[in-house]
Amino acid sequence: MAVLIGLGTWQVERLVWKRELSATISARTKAPPLALGGVVAHPAAMDYRRVSATGRFDHGRALYLSPRFLDGRPGAHIITPLMRGRLPPVLVNRGWVPLDRKTPATRQAAPGQGPVTVTGIARSDFRRGLFVPDNDAAKGFWIAYDPPAMARAMGIGAPLPLVLEADGAPNPGGLPKGAVTRIDLPNNHLGYALTWYALATALLAVFALAHRPGQGKDS
Asked: Is the dihedral of CA 38, 41, 43, 48 positive or negative?
């Protein structure tokens, strides 16, 4: 009983935490974009914050985060460094492309080389799930964000400790497709809590039946 009730209460606490997190994310993504400077003192406070940055993309140093799916189609996210002169570069997730359109030469239009201002969502929480494999920079295999390691593989200076996930502004030729940020977080904790409490109730009922007066005596 104690274990089951404890698990139910833990799920209630998780429910409250998830609702507060969702409210925070919603507020940050709807706020006016914050222009990125040269320092991010508190990366955690920037997670899911709308931001903007100005510079020039170095398309020749792009990396590919895969596998990524869009409407069931396999593909990759293009991570391109935005070079900002004397300011630290910013790694930008420009969006999704199908596997056969990863390289710029396979797309309808070449990416621009001039100065651009990119607006999107900052991601600074790079924790992975238990079953997410490690990146392999030597093989060019990237499955999760790691700005310092990605910057070393690109051969650029230390970037800001975040990744800017570009918004849905159209790119030349329609690719890559931006706005890859997942805003809606799954929240099943109420169902889990009710399940644990129901099991505790069932256990109590079984205990009561097994110990009711006269149980076990000859009729």
From this structure: negative
Q: What is the chain's alpha carbon radius of gyration, rounded to the nearest angstrom?
A: 24
Q: What is the pLDDT of residues 147-199, one digit of tens each?
A: 999 999 999 999 999 999 999 998 888 899 999 998 766 778 778 888 988 88
Phi, psi angles (nearest 5°) of residue 142:
-125, 125
Q: CA-CA-CA-CA torsion for 194, 12, 42, 31, nearest 10 degrees?
A: 70
Coil, strand or helix at 187: coil
Q: Which amino acid is at 103?
A: T
CA dist list (Å): 211 to 68, 186, 205, 214: 56, 41, 10, 8
Among 32, 73, 75, 80, smallest CA distance to 56 is for 80
Which residue(s) pair with 175 in the sheet?
none
The total number of residues written for the chain in this structure? 219
